[in-house]
Amino acid sequence: EDQVTQSPEALRLQEGESSSLNCSYTVSGLRGLFWYRQDPGKGPEFLFTLYSAGEEKEKERLKATLTKKESFLHITAPKPEDSATYLCAVQAKYGGSQGNLIFGKGTKLSVKP
Amino acid sequence: DADVTQTPRNRITKTGKRIMLECSQTKGHDRMYWYRQDPGLGLRLIYYSFDVKDINKGEISDGYSVSRQAQAKFSLSLESAIPNQTALYFCATSFGGGSTQYFGPGTRLTVL
Fold first, then answer.
1. Does residue A106 sit at the B interface (CB-CB below 8 Å)?
2. Looking at the predicted structure, is the pLDDT value of residue B72 above 80?
3. Which of B4, B9, B43, B46 to substitute to test the interface with A, most A CBs within 10 Å?
4. Quick check: A61 and A75 in contact, CB under 8 A?
5. How far apart are CA A32 and CA A14, in angstroms?
6. What SS3 state is found at B83?
7. In angstroms, rounded to a whole number, what is the distance separating the alpha carbons of residues A89 and A100?
8. Which of B98, B104, B108 sits opposite A91 (nearest CB)?
9. CB B73 within 8 A of CB B24
10. Which residues pair with A34 in a beta bridge?
11. pLDDT tens-digit series, residues A76-93
C-alpha cells in the first residue's frame, strides 16, 4: 500500500535556528514527490516537485532533497513568516492510486522571534 | 483574480440537508479533484475527474456525488449531510498526469 509518513508532527524553532522536516514514503514506483505549504484556513500552496533520487530544489530559505525512501525539507535560518504546516505528497506510477496524490499528515512548524 | 475559486467559503447546515460546493478554475487544466481535510487525518481524495466525461471515485466517496459541468467547473454534493462530514473541503486542478496540483482556498463546512 502506498503510504507517506511525515515527522515530526510539530516543530518549534527559534528564529534563525535551522532544521529539517522528514517525509518517508513507500510507493509503487515514484512518479513525483511534492511539497506544499499550508497556512491556517487556507489551501495548500505548491513549493517543489522532485522526481528522482539525488534531486534537490531550493526556494529562498527552503531546500528539498530526495532519496529512494525519503525526502527532507531543510529550513535555513527560518523567520516567523515561515510558520505553517508543510505537507508532503507522492504520486505513484503504478497501482490503484496511480496518478493521484497521497498526502502525509503534515508537520506544523512554528518559528518564534 | 484567483486561478481556482471555491464557493461558498463557509457554510453551516443541518443534518439531512442537501449541500453543493462549487469549484471553478481559469487555469485551463483538464483534471479536477475534491479533497477533504480533517485534523490529524490529512488530505483525503473524494472524487476526481480527468475530463468532462470521466469521473472517478477516490478514497472516501461514500455520501458524496460530483458533477463536471464544464472543463472549468466541478461541483461536490452532499445529498444528505451528516455531522461527520464537517471538514475543510478543497478543490484542486492539474494539467495532464504526473503534474502539480493547484489548490483552491477551501470551503469550511459545518454540519450540525
1. yes
2. yes
3. B43
4. yes
5. 32
6. helix
7. 9
8. B98
9. yes
10. A49, A89
11. 999 999 999 999 999 988
